[in-house]
Write a structure and sequence with these properties.
Layout lengths: L11 E6 L4 H12 L11 H5 L10 E8 L18 E2 L8 H17 L7 E4 L7 H7 L4 E2 L5 E2 L7 E8 L18 H5 L5 E3 L2 E2 L5 H4 L8 H7 L2 E3 L3 H4 L19 H4 L11 H8 L10 H14 L5 H10 L3 H14 L2 H11 L5 H13 L7 H4 L9
Parallel strand pairs: 3-10
Antiparallel strand pairs: 1-2, 2-7, 4-7, 5-6, 8-9
Helix pairs in contact: 11-13, 12-13, 12-14, 13-15, 14-15
């Protein structure tokens, strides 16, 4: 398998035993007790940690990794009057779920030619098993303090998938390297979601927060910066990732205009156009609403004065209360008389309780006296660009 992997489009491959993940179960139970789950994961912890509940008499699990790019070639500039957001690297190129399933299907076909009675169950991200736990056991890499799997060769810029089998393949040895005393990822986390080495409070992780659909707190909106989907900060600061950029998987290469798009056009993008532009990427699974909300937030964090008329249109005309309330927050961040007048007018018309509260909070916060916009526009905008 190891020798065949490159011809199948697989960058790293390993084998793990199919024994229950006992220590992981304890971690997950504690994680749940502390309220640190995202809600996106498989809710049944037994299924997440016991392969025999997913597959009849499992004998081994094959783990694969596919490397993806970390750098944009000739990225477009974000500048006053033409502010841009950023998609995390997990949303670059084609949806990685589709790419991984393709590689697992090729691996299965290769195995079937050699094992006639083969049985398999493949999983990618949304499967019950923990991709990272399987990858660690299979020797793909070690479990890093930022909760990623770090490969000595690939860094953490890799997607993971696995295949439970009925074949007792010999297991590989786990990687013995570690993060040592380095805490760069923990120190750099914008929201302190990394509460300890290998411990993530998912509810505060920007990667999770940008995929939610509701109103966000003032703190989290400020921390999001101009991120539209996901967050790469804990990976970009990692010394192991320094200089690593993988460009050999054609489906995963980014279109700079898609992954670093202009913000204002996103405010009015229709469903048809959104699907045409982003439907083939992993960022589309939650629809356009979170990305539009995050675009509004980004304009507020940029304090982009030229976007005030566009944000006022969202405040006055958008049918979604979350977008109206978020626009109110952004207008307060930008400030000025035009923004305040729009907020006061909206406070008399808004019928949604949550949006109205956001508008009233914005009125309390806004400073009607215009400040030095050029200076403000560069303040506190977090980015993984």
């Amino acid at each position: 398998m190891l020798r065949a992997a490159p011809s199948l489009g697989i960058d790293k491959i390993g084998v793990a035993s199919a024994d229950p993940f006992v220590s992981l179960k304890e971690i997950l139970l504690r994680h749940r007790e502390l309220g640190r789950e995202s809600g996106f994961e498989e809710p049944d912890i037994e299924k997440r940690t016991n392969p025999s509940l997913l597959f009849d008499n499992p004998q081994s699990i094959i783990a694969i990794a596919i490397a993806y790019p970390s750098k944009l070639k000739d990225p477009p500039k974000s500048e006053p009057g033409a502010r841009r957001g950023i998609m995390s690297r997990s949303a670059w190129g084609d949806d990685y779920h589709k790419v991984l399933r393709d590689r697992l299907a090729k691996l299965e076909a290769w195995l079937r030619e050699r094992v006639p009675d083969l049985r398999v169950e493949s999983m990618v991200d949304t499967g019950a098993l923990s991709d990272r736990a399987v990858a660690e056991r299979a020797g793909i890499g070690w479990s890093a303090k930022n909760c990623s799997i770090l490969s000595p060769e690939l860094g953490s810029w890799m997607y993971l998938g696995e295949m439970i089998t009925n074949v007792p393949f010999a297991p590989d040895e786990p990687v013995t390297e570690s993060c040592g005393s380095c805490t760069k990822c923990i120190d750099a986390c914008p929201t302190d979601a990394l509460v300890g080495p290998g411990q993530l409070d998912s509810s505060r992780c920007i990667s999770y927060v940008t995929q939610t659909k509701g109103m966000l707190s003032d703190e989290l909106m400020r921390k999001i910066g101009n991120r539209l989907y996901g967050c790469d900060t804990c990976q970009t600061v990692c010394p192991v990732n320094r200089g690593k950029n993988w460009t050999h998987q054609p489906e995963l290469q980014p279109d700079p205009e898609l992954v670093k798009p202009l913000l204002v056009p996103l405010l009015t993008i229709g469903n048809k156009e959104f699907q045409a532009r982003y439907g083939s990427t992993s960022s589309a699974w939650r629809g356009k609403k979170p990305i539009q909300r995050n675009a509004v937030i980004a304009l507020g964090n940029f304090k982009e004065a030229s976007a005030v008329p566009d944000l006022i249109r969202v405040l006055e005309q958008d049918t979604r209360p979350v977008l109206r309330g978020t626009a109110a927050w952004a207008l307060a961040r930008i400030g000025g008389g035009q923004a305040k007048a729009a907020l006061l007018a909206a406070s008399h018309k808004e019928s949604d309780e949550e949006a109205l509260q956001a508008i009233m909070n914005a009125i309390d916060q806004i400073n009607p006296i215009a400040k030095d916009i050029q200076q403000q526009s560069e303040e506190g905008v977090g980015t993984d660009d």
